[in-house]
Amino acid sequence: MKYIIQLSIILGISFLGEVCKYFLPFPIPASIYGLVILFVCLETKIIKLESIQETAKCLVEIMPVMFIPAGVGLLESWGVLKPVLVPVVVIMLVSTVVVMAVSGWVTQGVIRCKKSGQKKQEE
After folding, report:
1. Is the separation of the CB atoms in 52 and 35 below 8 Å?
2. Assign residue 45 a region: left if phi > 0, alpha if psi is -120 to 50, beta otherwise?
3. pLDDT tens for residues 72-95?
4. How many of the other CB atoms lie within 10 Å of CB of 25?
5. What number of other Cβ atoms are within 10 A of residue 41's Cβ?
6. Other C-beta atoms within 10 Å of 63: how many?
7. Where is 67: in which H helix or E strand?
């Protein structure tokens, strides 16, 4: 029963994202609206982490399975992708490296900020 309630909360937030997508004129996917709503609810303690944690962990664990339909779609689109394969591969490689570098810099910055905050608290 606990998992059904947790999943209902997550699906309810996803539904709110769909509603936002329907009413707001911005070109933002409904899933992004849902993620932002869930983030705000968790940060403001409207939803406690414990109330969705176990189901969220389960969903993260099965996430790779969710990419199978996208992979099959790419295979079905091979005829369209073949002529632009080289530019697409170059863009994917460059964007992957850029995302990894920016993520690393941001992570290092957050770690430095936390360390400097802890040093200030100790003094």
Report:
1. no
2. left
3. 988 888 888 889 989 989 999 999
4. 5
5. 16
6. 9
7. none
